[in-house]
Each structure stands twice: as structure tokens, then as C-alpha cells.
Amino acid sequence: MLKSLRKWMFYRSFNLADQAKKPANIQVNPMRSVCILFDGSEEEQRKRVHQFKKMMSQEGRSEVKSLAFVNNRLPLDNVDYAAYNLKDINWYGIPSGERVQTFIKYDFDLMIVLCKKMLPHYEYIIAHSGAHFKVGPDITRAEKYFDLIVDLPKSMDTGLLINNIIQAVNLVAVKNKT
């Protein structure tokens, strides 16, 4: 009973009008801003995403931002990256906080999701994001939110997932012939 009430309250917070705002003509190019949503609970994951962001910035992207979920309840005052944790998630799964709201409201050209399973707080952020094109792994309800779905490596390695996403985006991106 409590589980169904929690689920009902979670999905009640979704505004269907926000989902209807998606533009009819979606394209990967030009891409001026990119956001990355990922599980940053482990230092190795954060390092890989930081390297990925650095690589994308060097390729001429004007803006690359990320938001990490850290699976603990410790204060995040001293972290030097945008993050939220269990203290920022209410009892039925809605994340809150200034960093989460800023990430959701920003009008990104591309959202890359590097999550290995669809947790309610990830789903909320993905569903309410203002990103024009969303790419992520083949996880639960991926077809509902992602414009491009890539294979999730059986090893669950973030580096392989990043490579799969790069290959998929390069496959659908329009190449300029100059």
C-alpha cells in the first residue's frame, strides 16, 4: 500500500505539459551545450566523466556541465562539482535542491545519461530536463525518455558506455562538409 502511494505521488509530480514542449524537429547538430547525468558515488566514475567532459570541451563544445548523484547522506558543501545525494531526495523519489533545479531548467542541446539503472530521481530529472536531445543506455523506461538508446555493456563499465554513446551520436550526427 505504501509503495503504491509513493509511486502515485511520484508520477503525480510529472507535468504532462512539460513533456509536450518537445520540438518536432530534433537534430544533434549544432550542439553548443551538453549535460551529463551520472552516478558519482565512486571516485573512478567521477574521474571518467571529468575526462569525458574535458575531451568534449576540447572538441569545441562551448559548454559541458554535469550533475552527479552521490549515494550517501553526507554534506556536499565541499565538493567542487555539481552533485546531489540522498538528503536531497524526498521519501517518494523527487530530487530537490538548487543544483538539481538549475540542471533541469537549463536549455541544453544534448543530455547524456550515464546511469546503469533507472532510479526514480534519475527518471524525474530526465523527464523534466529542458534538453532537446537525450541519449542514454538501454535501461528501464529508456524508450519513454531517450531520443537515442545505446547498448549498456554487460560489464557495466562507464568507459565502454561512453564509447557506445560517442559512436551512436557520431552515427546520427550530420557532418558538415567544409
Q: Based on CA inertia axes, which overall geometry fits? A: globular
Order of helices and strands: HHEHEEHEHEHEH
Query: What's the number of extended β-strand segments?
Result: 6
User: Which range best describes the helical content: under 10%, 10-25%, 25-40%, 40-55%, 55-70% or over 70%?
Assistant: 25-40%
Named at the architecture level, the CATH assignment is 3-Layer(aba) Sandwich
**pLDDT averaged over residues:** 86
Please state how the strands of the largest beta sheet are arranged side by side. 3-2-1-4-5-6
Radius of gyration: 16 Å
Largest sheet, strands/sense/barrel:
6 strands, parallel
* Top-tier CATH class: Alpha Beta
Taken as a percent bin, the fraction of beta residues is 15-25%
The name CATH uses for the topology is Rossmann fold
Structural class: alpha/beta
Poorly predicted segments: none
Q: Can you walk me through this structure?
A:
It is a single chain. This protein has 178 residues and is an alpha/beta fold. The protein has helices spanning 2-12, 16-20, 43-58, 98-105, 120-128, 142-145, 158-172; strands at residues 33-39, 63-70, 83-85, 110-114, 133-137, 148-150. The protein contains seven helices and six strands. It has a single domain, classed as 3-Layer(aba) Sandwich (Rossmann fold), CATH 3.40.50. The chain is globular, with a radius of gyration of 16 Å. 38% of the residues lie in helices and 17% in strands. It has a six-stranded parallel beta sheet. Strand 4, helix 5 and strand 5 form a beta-alpha-beta unit.
